[in-house]
Specification:
With 97 residues, the chain is α+β, with helices and mostly antiparallel strands. It is built from three helices and five strands, in the order ββββαααβ. Strand 3 and strand 4 form a beta hairpin. The radius of gyration is 13 Å and the shape is globular.
Length: 97
């Protein structure tokens, strides 16, 4: 998939989510759906670095790398998999390029 064909993702409205850390897990209550999601790292970190922009998985991995030590050469693929999961949960919006 070329960069122009890669999907981009945008985090849901921050004011529509209640985020509560709970030990090793994080609870994310989605007001719109009334659903509480139980997530683990790196989901809260991914949502935090996304801001209000449509980003590719590579862009998100780059933003994460500025705050975390990402030495995995598969970081973009891992981030893409998490973004697809978040899209299926309705926590991020997916847009095809």
């Amino acid at each position: 998939m070329t960069r122009s064909q890669t999907p981009t993702f945008k985090a849901g409205q921050v004011d529509g989510l209640l985020v509560e850390p709970l030990d090793q897990m994080t609870l994310i209550y989605q007001r719109r759906s009334g659903v509480t999601h139980i997530v683990a790292e790196p989901i809260p970190e991914i949502l935090a670095v996304m801001g209000n922009d449509f980003l590719s998985a590579e862009d998100v991995a780059t933003r994460l790398a500025s705050s975390f030590d990402l030495d995995d050469s598969n970081a973009t693929a891992i981030v893409l998999a998490r973004l697809e999961e978040l899209a299926s949960l309705g926590l991020v919006e997916r847009r095809n390029a």
